[in-house]
Sequence to fold (226 residues):
Amino acid sequence: GEDVEQSLFLSVREGDSSVINCTYTDSSSTYLYWYKQEPGAGLQLLTYIFSNMDMKQDQRLTVLLNKKDKHLSLRIADTQTGDSAIYFCAERVAGRRALTFGSGTRLQVQP
Amino acid sequence: DGGITQSPKYLFRKEGQNVTLSCEQNLNHDAMYWYRQDPGQGLRLIYYSQIVNDFQKGDIAEGYSVSREKKESFPLTVTSAQKNPTAFYLCASSIPLGQANTEAFFGQGTRLTVV
Fold:
C-alpha cells in the first residue's frame, strides 16, 4: 500500500534540536524527500536521500533512514524561529508517476 | 529566473460556477502535477501529466479537469461537480519520475474559496 505518516505537531525552543519523524509502508521507495512549507506558500525542497543510504547531512540538516523499519527522520540542529513551518516527507516509488506526501508536521519554534 | 507561476493567488467562486487555475513553468519540465492541500491531510494528487497532450487522473480527480496543450502550461478547472472545492491548490513540475532523482518544484499556490 501507499501510506506516508507523520505526527502533526512539534514544539521546540530556539537553539534546541528538532527531530521530525516519518513512516512509510512501500518497501519499493527509491528516494525520500523532505519539503518545507511556510505559511501561504508552496513547498520548498530541503533535502532528499536515496534508499540505499542510511544517513545524509547537509549543514544543519541530518536525514536518517531506517529501511528495515521504513522510518525516516529529519533532524534540524540549532533550530531557529525561521525554521517554523510545516515539514512534509514524501516518497518516490518505482513505477508510480508522482510523489506521495505525508500529512505534514507543523514545527513551532519558541524564542 | 526559472520557476513555476500560479495565478491568481486568491480566488473566490460562487456555488455552481466553474473556475480555472493557471500554472505556468519555464523550467522545461515535461511532467506537471496538481495537488490539493487541506488542513491536516497533506497533499493529495488531482491530476498529472508526463508529456504534452497527455494527462492522467490522480487520487481525487472527480470534479476537476485539466488540459496540457503546451509544455509550459497545465491549467486546472474546478467544475461545479466538485462539491467541496475550498482548499489550497498547488502545482508542481519535474522531469519525468523515471529519470534518476527527480525533484518536484512547486508554485506558490492558489487559495480557492467558495462563497
